[in-house]
Specification:
Largest sheet: 7 strands, parallel
Mean pLDDT: 95
Radius of gyration: 18 Å
Structural class: alpha/beta
Number of strands: 7
Number of helices: 8
Distance between the termini: 29 Å
Length: 259
């Protein structure tokens, strides 16, 4: 299927690896020119070159922390009028809420709620003026089914979800869709870190804990970044213009509810 976005421009945040990289690569394969951001310049450069070789599109690297004003300004300078914005930032660490300070909460909200809002604020009016835009926010399945040790993420990402529910209803008539992608257990560094935390609490090895987690999923495995990227690319396509304000869960069937 031709997604109809060849030649478009995208900003993909936290794209040096994991789900962000999967989204950037999937968009590039559709002919989208991408600006990718990440904090680690070496990892970012490696990913940028990989995407260039695989797709032939223009890939611009912007090393920096997207959760800071300077990091956002640098990304927007490299692509001031994106057609596509993929918001993504590393989640806050797991732990016990009794140990979290006010500063921990502010940092989580700043990264996982306010940063995507600031990027949307900087780009959505231009998208509406051009009558085309796609915003995809990478959040978490924990928005729908909270995970006890991820309380910081549960709270911050739920705040973003509520904000998007209202905003998305105001942009659709101008050709701009805004959706959230909710990853469940995908095989990323973040997943492995959470598994390591659970392993320490259960007196099992990380390998044993990972095997238990994978087998407990209805699919019998973890998801891949490629699968996630494909869904992101579809939401950014011309075929998804009637999909907006949605929370699309990708978790291998792990969430047990009907709705």
């Amino acid at each position: 299927m031709d997604l109809g976005i060849k030649g478009r421009k995208a900003i993909v945040c936290a794209a040096s690896k994991g789900l962000g990289k999967g989204c950037a690569l999937a968009l590039a394969r559709e002919g989208v020119h991408v600006v990718i951001t990440a904090r680690t310049a070496a990892d970012l450069a490696k990913t940028a070159e990989e995407i260039r070789k695989a797709t032939g599109v223009t890939v611009t690297e912007v090393a920096g922390d997207i959760t800071t004003e300077a990091g956002r300004a640098a990304a927007l300078k490299a692509c001031p009028e994106p057609d596509i914005l993929v918001n993504n930032a590393g989640g806050p660490p797991p732990g016990n809420f009794r140990n979290w300070t006010r500063e921990d909460w502010i940092k989580a909200v700043d990264a996982n709620m306010l940063t995507p809002i600031e990027l949307i604020k900087a780009t959505v009016d231009g998208m509406m003026k051009r009558n085309f835009g796609r915003v995809v926010n990478i959040t978490s399945s924990a928005v729908k089914a909270p995970i006890d040790i991820l309380g910081l993420s549960n709270g911050a990402r739920s705040g973003l979800t509520g904000f998007i529910a209202g905003l998305a209803r105001t942009t659709g008539r101008h050709g701009v869709t805004i959706n959230n992608l909710l990853p469940g257990p995908f095989d990323t560094d973040r997943l492995r870190s959470n598994i390591a935390t659970r392993a320490r609490n259960s007196n099992r090895s990380a390998e044993e804990e990972a095997e238990i987690a994978a087998k407990s999923n209805p699919s019998g495995r973890f998801g891949t970044a490629e699968e996630f990227g494909a869904m992101c690319a579809f939401l950014c396509s011309v075929h998804a213009g009637y999909v907006t304000g949605q929370n699309i869960l990708m978790d291998g069937g792990q969430y047990p509810g009907t709705f």
